[in-house]
Description:
Elements: H1 5-11, H2 22-31, E1 40-47, E2 59-63, E3 74-77, H3 81-88, E4 93-95, H4 99-104, E5 113-116, H5 121-124, H6 128-131, H7 149-158, E6 160-164, E7 170-177, H8 182-198, E8 209-216, E9 222-224
Parallel strand pairs: 3-4, 3-5
Antiparallel strand pairs: 1-7, 1-8, 2-6, 8-9
Amino acid sequence: MKRGKKYVEAVNKFDRYAQYDAADAIKIVKENATAKFDETIEVHIRTGCDGRHAEQQIRGAVVLPHGTGKTVRVLVFAKGAKLDEAQAAGADFVGGDELIPRIQNEGWLDFDVVVATPDMMGIVGRLGRILGPKGLMPNPKAGTVTMDVAKAIADIKAGKIEYRLDKTNIIHVPIGKASFTEEQLADNFQTLMDAIVKAKPSALKGTYLKSVVMTSTMGPGVKMNTAKFV
């Protein structure tokens, strides 16, 4: 894969094979985020889990203290008083059955997170094939299937992110923007890693965190020292 000049220059500024502590990794990643837009800072965690086994699955959510820097659009499936509650709490879209054909037939997906009350999951389940692959399906573990829609919306708007294993047993999550201070990114990173360490499956044998890499949208990945998290 041919890389651009800026990428190659960025790679030459640090040791690709070294493992850096969080503070140094954040400094390097921020310095290499030179695109004309505010790049997202991401963390990619390769685990020793085997997601094919239910007892080794990892899925949850955590509220980053400084948010993600992204405006999150929330869709809430609810009815009755919960519809009003969702609107009052700042949901971007609310509704019920009438939203199903809009998503199924018109391909409407102008939202980032879906919240549903438990009594709506029978309806939302019809959207599994569409929402599931995009990581948008509401889930109790992520706090997106709940009767307390106001709290769910508040947490999401405040910077709640969901983490889960992908098919290759890697967790990919944003922890902020290149415009964040190093201290803000460090706080967010530490909060995320505390949650990931806590989520370690008891059934797992062997190494849990195989590698942790921090990167910006357009920049090279910086390997991080996982020893302190083991």
